[in-house]
Specification:
Blueprint: H1 13-16, E1 25-28, E2 39-42, H2 47-54, H3 68-79, H4 86-90, E3 102-113, E4 119-122, E5 129-133, E6 136-139, E7 150-160, E8 165-171, H5 172-179, H6 183-189, H7 199-202, E9 208-214, H8 217-220, E10 226-233, H9 237-242, H10 245-257
InterPro entries: Euk_RPA1_DBD_C, NA-bd_OB-fold, Rep_factor-A_C
Family: Belongs to the replication factor A protein 1 family.
Protein name: Replication factor A C-terminal domain-containing protein
Length: 258
């Protein structure tokens, strides 16, 4: 059984402090006895609630709902997680299966690399890319034609920071968030070749974002310099002023020396 912390419900502390021990709270907007409006009952004299109060395991874990402050703290921590420069990223090499592979980089989008288009067809069964063969698409995993193929974003971004430039690959989830649309909408309104970059994608240019990047074996073992973006964040004054890059790099360096 999961119990919600009373503090999270913002119930008047003067009421709750008058009741000792476990507190069972019932919230209702339906008819209860003779009351018809929305009511909050604390430790009501009802058999079911009495059993909850005195019949539960005293060692049972009580799970509290995370506060908004904690959520914001976790988000800010993720925004500066293993912060490095693009040059640092490109210098990464394979060390072991346990080495850090997720980093954050503050960078600016300078353009869209449309050499390989901006979308791909996905097999609905294996969620992998399907390749065009004649008039059909064939899944590279199951070698079958997808019955319900889905068109997904795959956008190659030309990005830069104070150190150098690189190519970051933005996939469907983050692309939809930044563009506030889906691929099918852009394809519908686009009259020219679907490989050509729609004007909407060009709106990403000149945006400065925090990119969470995950290195893979192609990067670490084969030297590929196309990096997969797993998350994007809008930089805030708080994170960038309180956690400048040099300070973050020094913390990472100290940890590596311990």
């Amino acid at each position: 059984m999961q119990m919600i912390c009373i503090e999270q419900l913002k119930i008047n502390k003067e009421i709750t402090t008058q009741i000792k021990g476990q507190k069972i709270v019932a919230l209702t907007s339906t008819l209860v006895s003779t009351t018809s409006s929305t009511k909050i009952y604390i430790n009501p004299e009802i058999e079911d609630f009495t059993q909850l109060t005195y019949g539960t395991d005293q060692h049972e874990e009580v799970i509290e709902i995370p506060s908004q402050d904690n959520a914001n703290t976790n988000l800010q921590s993720r925004m500066i997680r293993n912060r490095i420069t693009i040059q640092d990223l490109m210098a990464m090499q394979w060390e072991s299966d346990y080495q850090k592979k997720i980093f954050t980089i503050l960078a600016t989008i300078n353009g869209i690399d449309d050499k390989f288009g901006w979308n791909y067809v996905e097999c609905e069964k294996y969620h992998k890319k399907a390749y065009k063969k004649g008039d059909n698409y064939i899944c590279g995993t199951c070698n079958q034609t997808p019955q319900y193929p889905t068109i997904r974003f795959r956008i190659q971004l030309k990005v830069s920071d104070q150190s150098t430039t690189a190519t970051f690959v933005l996939f469907d989830g983050e692309a939809k968030k930044l563009l506030d649309t889906i691929t099918s909408n852009l394809i519908t309104i686009q009259k020219s070749n679907d490989l050509e970059v729609p004007p909407q994608l060009k709106n990403l240019c000149n945006l400065t974002l925090i990119f969470e990047v995950k290195l893979n074996e192609f990067n670490l073992k084969e030297g590929s310099q196309q990096y997969t973006v797993t998350k994007t964040f809008v930089p805030t004054k708080n994170t960038e002023q309180q956690h400048p890059l040099q300070q973050i790099k020094q913390v990472i360096l100290k940890k590596s020396l311990i």
